[in-house]
Hints:
Residues 19-62 form the HTH cro/C1-type domain. It comes from Roseomonas marmotae. It contains twelve helices and twelve strands. By secondary structure, the protein is an alpha/beta fold. The strands form three sheets. Strands 2-1-3-4-5-11 form a six-stranded parallel β-sheet. Residues 6-11 and 346-350 have low confidence and may be disordered.
Amino acid sequence: MNDVPPPAAFRQRATIVTLSRLAGVAPSTISRALKGDTRISAETRARIATLAQELGYTPNALARTLSSGRSGLIGLVLGPSTHPIYTEILHETVAQAGERGMRMLMIHAGAGPIEDKTAEALLQYKVDGCLITSAELSSRAAHICSANGVPVVMVNRVAREHSSAVACDNRAGGGELAALLIAHGHRRFGLVNTSNRTSTALEREQGFVEHLEKAGQKLMLRLDGQSTYDGGFEAGRQIVALPARRRPDAIFAVSDIIGMGVLDALRLGGVRVPQDISVVAFDDIPQAAWPIYDLTTVAQPLGAMVRRGLDLLAARMTDPGLPDETVTLRGKLIVRGSVRVIDRNSVPIA
């Protein structure tokens, strides 16, 4: 009976000590052999590797953390799970981190500034660095990470406190959308922004408004889209409720998810897009290209943004003394069917 191995649920995990006892060598020899140390003979290394495979041995990450001071973990702070852009960023980050041999620890923070408890959680899990893709980094949270030697890189946000950042050129993208609408003959402009007034949303609005002003135009309407589809839908309903002559002939929603809500509300209210009102947005999430939306937008270079973010983070994990750095990448204007060309000779300006 004693020769029968215990059920898998009751077997102890194989350790360096277990391998050492069974192989009849010192624990240090086991450790060196598994690392491919050529000071250990090829025969011994092969014998230990076979034994480790048979027992299902895997390195103890906690022990490695305690001995080296590094966990090999990268924290990833994501925004609201209901927003498709963060799903896209998650997929891109996990794929690229995997190619580099990095392990990700996902922490969902939602919208708004990162709270102190989120920063403290990153330290409790002993992350070697952190990518923050949504929320603003508060002064207190930035200080907590900095004081504990955890480098932080913002992706999709411009850093304001003690960190590097990679972001799309939101101001330039907003300006491109304004230029497109003006070139297509629009003269009455509305903006649907967000209530939380993130740096991203503000930059997109500033770029759009600045280009209008340079062309001698201005906003006639500004509404709150609350960073959500529902917020965009409610803003669209408010536009529908306006008398036809007081409605904008073009709407800029600062994100695709808001723009999709605006578009649906307009059409359900009997306002045709783009025949009556053109709608443009920003991000180029996959749903923006669906035929039902066919949304003109500015595509963020997410793949390149994540790649540069991981580059910046890896460099600062190796050399914590590197200065903070901000990288801005240009987006790409994607023209689809949600914008019309107005013949100014036949359509009067109200």
